[in-house]
Structure formats: C-alpha cells, structure tokens
Amino acid sequence: MPLPMAGSSLQCIKRQISSPYTLSLKRQSFQFLSRHSIHTSLRSRPSLIPANLRRNGHTTPSRRAIQSQFQAFVPPTPESLGKAKPAKLYPRTLKWGRRLLYIGILGGGIYLIDSHLYASSLTRSARTFKTGLLVALDYKLNFRPEPFFGGTIGDLHRRSAQRMFDLLHQNGGLYLKIGQAIAMQSAVLPPEFQKMFARMFDDAPQNSWSDVEKVIKEDFGGRSPQEVFGVSFAGEPGKGVMETRARASASVAQVHWARLADGREVAIKVQKREIASQVGADLWSFR
Q1: What distance in Å separates the CA atoms of residue 158 and residue 190, rounded to the nearest whole number?
Q2: 37 compared with 279, residue with greater pLDDT
Q3: Rounded-to-integer distance, Cα 5 and Cα 10, Å
Q4: How far is CA 196 from CA 40, 182, 250, in A?
Q5: Nearest to 162 by CA among 135, 196, 187
C-alpha cells in the first residue's frame, strides 16, 4: 500500500483539529472544568452558598443562584447619605488662644518700648516689686521658732540677702549706690547681710565704648572723643592716646585713662548713658 505524502498528512491533522466536532469537545471540557472548580470551592467554603440553599440542604447551587450573589455597583444618592454634620470649631479654645496672642503682642510691644526708650525702667521696677514681695512673704511665713518651710533663721537671712544682692547687682545704676550705702551701715543688719553686701564695693559692670562715645557726643554738641580730648586711636604723631576699656566702673559712671597731647595723664570719668533715663523710675521704686 502506498504511504501518504507528508503534506497530505499535515493537512489531514489540521482538518481534524479545526472540525466542529473537535471544537465542541473543547468547549464541553472547559465548561466541565469551570463548573468543577466552582463546585469544589463551594464545598470547601460553605459560607459562599446562599442561606436559602443551605437551609434546603443543597450544596451545589445553580448558575442563577451564583449569579444572584453579585449585583451591579450603584453609587449612593445624596439623600441616602443623610445630612452633613457641621465641623467642630472649639470656640473656647479659639477665644483663649486669641487672648493669649493679644497679651503676648501687648507685652512684647511694652518691652520693646521700655528697653529702647526708657532704658528698661519699667522692667527694673517690676523686678524690684517682685523681689520685695517675695522677701516679705518669706519673712512672714518663716520668721518664727518653727518655720513653715523648715530651716533656721540663719537660712532665712541668707537667702533673703542673696535675693537682695542679685536684685541690686542686676538692676545696677542707683541700685548699686543704695547697696553700697546699706553695706556701710551693715552693723545693724544680720551677719548674713553684712557678708553679702560687702561685695557691693567690687567693680560694677561697665558700658561699651559705643555708649561712651554717645555720651561724649551728646554732652559736647556732637564732637567725637578725638576732637574733644585731642587723642588718636591710630597712633597719629602729635596727638594723645586714650583707652577704650575703663580702668574702673562704679554705679553711675566709669573711668578711662588718657594721655593728652602735652604729655599729661588724666582720668576721664564718663557717666553711664542709661542713668539719666533711670533716675526718676528708680527713686519712685525706692519710695
């Protein structure tokens, strides 16, 4: 028997694969596999079976029962969402926040005006009243045989003297002068005050050279120290010299050494610039 040609055998195989009978077998096998996978997943997970089928004892739902579980997504309507709730504004918190902001702005403005125009006179006076009230309250509560906060009378004198010393040294100016006057009459004060106020005769803080120049220009009609005293800071021949750092500093003035053009050595005492603005408020605080 003659063998078929290779080309004719390939055409026969293609014809068999593309025949309607073969395509129907493929479709049936695919449907069988898909149904089998669905049934297997439903048996392993009974919660996927509708409740009505589980009550009737069915474990293999129909295609219509499976499709009834999945419905098309419908967006909610504004009526179904209900009325929108207004946002919570916290009115009390906002009110107190505004008050704190206004107080901070007012306090900052007062501080800037006081420090630039009045040489911190209001700040110094407030510090004085606070320290005086604290010392008076401490003596009122603890100057007794059994103090409220423990310690001894010596401890009370010591911390009160420290508070007064810190106040006088921090405010400076006339406060240092008052502290020196108290130190010279310290025989009538407790020993703790005598030891603390003896330090009042040490050098007081000195002002910068820029402040010294401003005081000299204000007192001499705008003339600089070089013009007033005939000195030079660059070592020019024929002119004197002057130290920009004070040799000593007191409560209301500081002293600078200088050598004039004729060779004389002098001490130039310059009043501190803030004293003129602080005198009135300081005397009022003392009273």
Answers
A1: 9
A2: 279
A3: 9
A4: 97, 11, 18
A5: 196
Judge whether 135 and 160 are in contact, CB under 8 Å: yes
Alpha helices per DSSP H over 69-120 = 78-81, 91-117
Q: Which two tokens stand for residue 151?
A: 């310690």
Instruction: Give, in order, the Cα–Cα distances in Å from 72 to each of 48, 50, 75, 78.
Output: 18, 18, 10, 19
Contact 251, 177 (CB under 8 A): yes
* Cβ proximity of 60 and 45 under 8 Å: no
Q: Using one digit for the tens of pLDDT, what is the confidence trace for 185-236?
A: 777 888 888 888 888 776 678 889 999 999 999 999 999 999 999 999 888 8
Nearest alpha-carbon partner for 284 in 109, 159, 118, 139 = 118
In angstroms, the CA 165 to CA 197 distance is: 7
Q: Where are the beta strands (DSSP E) in the chain?
A: 241-242, 248-249, 253-259, 265-271
Is residue 124 a contact partner of residue 171, using CB atoms and an 8 Å limit?
yes
Contact, 121 vs 281, CB < 8 A? yes
Which tokens is 232 given? 């030079």
DSSP 8-class letter at 248: E
Give the pair of three-digit tokens for residue 25.
């077998």
pLDDT digits (tens, 9 = 90+) for 72-116: 777 888 777 878 788 888 888 989 999 999 999 999 999 888 888
Q: How far apart are CA 178 and CA 197, in angstroms?
A: 10
Among 250, 249, 231, 251, residue whose Cα is nearest residue 241: 231
Closest-CA residue to 167 (of 218, 116, 132): 132
265's CB contacts (< 8 A; 6+ apart) are 257, 258, 259
